Amino acid sequence: MNSEDHPASVFKDKIKSSWPYALAVSIIGLLALWIRILPSKSVFLGNGFVRFGGNDPWYHMRTVNALLANYPNRMFFNPMTNYPNGNFIHFGPLFDQMIAITSLILGLGNPSQGLVNWVGAYFPAVLGALTVIPVYYLGKCLGGHKTGILAAILIAFAPGQFLSRSMIGFTDHHVAETFFSTFFILFFMLALISAKKKGLRFEHVINKEWKVLKEPLIYSVIAGVMYSAYQLAWPGASLFLFVVLVYAVFQYILNNFRKESSDYLGITGIVTFLVSAILILPFVHPDMGFSMFYYSWFHVVTAFGAMIGFVFLSLIEREFNRRNIKGYYYPLVIFGIGVVGLIAAKIVVPSLYSLVITAPEAVFGIKTGGASTIAEASSIFYEGGAFTLSRAFGNFTTSGFLVSFLGMFILTASLVRKPKPEEVLVLVWSLLMLLAIYGQNRFAYYYSVNVAVLSAYVGGLLLEMVKWDQLNEKFKSSVKSLADIPGFLKFVKIEQVIAVLAIAVVLIYPVYGSAMQLTTGTGGPDGTWIEACLWLQSNTPDPGMDYNAIYEAPKDGQSFKYPDTAYGVMSWWDYGHWIETIGHRMPNANPFQAGIGGRRGSIDEVNQPGASTFFTAQSEEEASAVLEAVDPNPDKAGARYIVSDVEMATGKFYAMTAWTLDSEGYYKSYLTGSGYQSLPSKRYFDSMESRLHILDGNGLKQYRMVHETWASQTQEVGYKQVYNYLFGGSIPETDTGYVKIFEYVKGAKITGTTSPNESVNINTTILTSQGRTFGYSQSATSDSEGRYEFTVPYSTEGPISGQTQFDTAPSGPYVVSYGGATKEVKVSEEAVLKGEEVKV
């Protein structure tokens, strides 16, 4: 054997030739990590508080802490949210386990809360940086090292949702989705390339020719592992199963037209999804039926279904070849079998049939009604009902987005020749991800990978046109030290310099510039919400629930049994996880869109009780009826506290109305000095949200403000100006607490007598936790016998032990006035809480 052909020499040569690229990818990965941890000061606050970004990251940290408190048992059902129903946790277990295991290792089995928070905060940034690796190899498979390096650079700085969701503190499963789905596509692609290169046939499997089988099977098994990891990171991972199946059908059809064997594809698909089905099986909860959003039989059945699909596609192809049937009949047969399969599923497993039919619309369709107000679920191409490319350009940069289309066009054009399987896979994958962001812009973090790979593919073709590979080989052969570089430069051609500059200016610089603009902060609750939630935790009664305990889910048709001390906190769904995780209280609504109420199909439906119906209610009585209806116990309200912020009263108010499918009339066109303007109308100011936040609950009988945070400059002043100008109000036109907390109480009954049919007023001055004062008043008319009654929510005597430790209360007694007489009335907290009578 020639010494140069010795395995050790070959391995040594491979290491020698690949280390510069490994070093380059490592440096790119470190740059990707650096840009993701730039806003660390907005995450690690000076007081030791760790502010995670967004909404769902808080829930992940909630489940991580529950996991660590009960390790290795995880929480599957959580009664501490969506009160009084609770929620199954449809997040995958893998992301939380990765954080928990890392924390346990670094904490030597007993990690502190500070360490857990630190690991959780850095975890998405690390995963985002590591995504550089599979993207590099995807680019390399398409166009060699140069394409791979360029793809790695582009994904490292890719702006938009991929960067924001892999930023420090954004501890959500989205970055894990991208990480594992990209690795899945990579290893599936490597399996295809290897199997095609080796001419893999089913006969090789039957004859156990391991020399041919080894490499493709290893890649296929790893692809199955990565798909399972992806499923365990996000239950909706069947999106990529759909991608692979669509690709497979298309590849089988192409191969049949060309009379090429597709055995390599069939074996790859069968092994990949067999491995996945086996790995996901231990995580199935049989009581979940065929739910797509929990770990149910759906995931096992679809994986086995995909495997069987590859078997049938291969068997049909072999029969076509044996009978020498023309290739254009193949897609017709596939279509017919698909229709028969759906009919069979409808008869045998109707729930699975329903999921298969509705899933494409759920992913790719444009949302309407309340769902259209969910930012991440709206189409990337439509904003306010109008077509736009601005959000696409913001996510991928203008040049990157357009160049990715050029890449798909080139790949499509290549179909007329003999395209490689990896090229067809990238084309189908990219087209379906483009369709996915048409339905939901959240999938932009997936399409960022496609844009990086496609743009790098185009850049790589440009470098090929200027013979970059020849220059690269010349560099390797002539440059042995720094002193050789000047001599090498004479071989560099002007067109090569121009090509590199074009790639830098058109592709690299825009993504870097856009990425840097996203490093100023990470979002999440601002100081007012943090303060409000911490206030809830410290100043409201313990609901009687073990916060980190693992509770069993109620059986079908039954409700979770809460202790009598349990209660809900009503707010808009955006804030549910903050209330639960920071405040340790049970929100009625949460970012899983649970507890919102309202309507889904049409205005003719019953307006279900929930957050949307409560905050849009047109009277206190209507709002209280909603609270009472939320809890199935007729003697108990669904919420004890209501938390509002100024965004709910202004910009987010439309979303509340949209969930009821009754959004007309809250804003009307009024003639002002500046012409006609759309302004809040009487219907808006009659809403419970306006009564609470804009009007401070003045005049309400059973709702009292118990705390407010500091004020910020917002739209609140403008709303108050409209109220005073159009509706004769006299409220101070100032910004008040950004977040306000109210309590729903029975209210004390203040009774007395005066002359029949006499106008009677009651008022007091409320002093808030911010030193602000506002007036509280009610009016009534005595009856024919001179009796009058007021129900008032505020205690003049201060809080009592075991109940709300409010810091917003009357600065003095109530004053009852009628005719020329006035009387002062003091009201105890017991009277307010028990609805007792206080006689004047």
Automatic annotation (TrEMBL):
Coiled coil feature spans: none
Gene Ontology terms for molecular function: metal ion binding; oligosaccharyl transferase activity
Positions of the Oligosaccharyl transferase STT3 N-terminal domain: 52-465
Transmembrane feature ranges: 20-38, 88-109, 115-137, 149-168, 174-195, 239-257, 264-284, 296-316, 328-349, 396-416, 423-439, 445-466, 487-512
InterPro entries: AglB-like_core, AglB_P1, Oligo_trans_STT3, OlisacTrfase_arch, STT3_N
Location(s) in or outside the cell: Cell membrane
Top EC class of this enzyme: transferase
Alphabetical keyword list: Glycosyltransferase, Magnesium, Manganese, Membrane, Metal-binding, Transferase, Transmembrane, Transmembrane helix
Topology in the lipid bilayer: Multi-pass membrane protein
Domain Archaeal glycosylation protein B peripheral positions: 747-838
Assigned EC number: 2.4.99.21
Keyword Nucleotidyltransferase found: no
Catalyzed reactions: an archaeal dolichyl phosphooligosaccharide + [protein]-L-asparagine = an archaeal dolichyl phosphate + a glycoprotein with the oligosaccharide chain attached by N-beta-D-glycosyl linkage to a protein L-asparagine
Any Pfam family hit: AglB_L1
Cellular component GO terms, alphabetical: plasma membrane
Residues covered by the AglB-like core domain: 528-649
Pathway linked to the protein: Protein modification; protein glycosylation
Cofactor(s), names only, from the UniProt record: Mg(2+); Mn(2+)
Family as reported in the entry's similarity comment: Belongs to the STT3 family.
Protein name: dolichyl-phosphooligosaccharide-protein glycotransferase
Organism: Methanosarcina lacustris Z-7289
Lineage, opening ranks: Archaea, Methanobacteriati, Methanobacteriota, Stenosarchaea group, Methanomicrobia
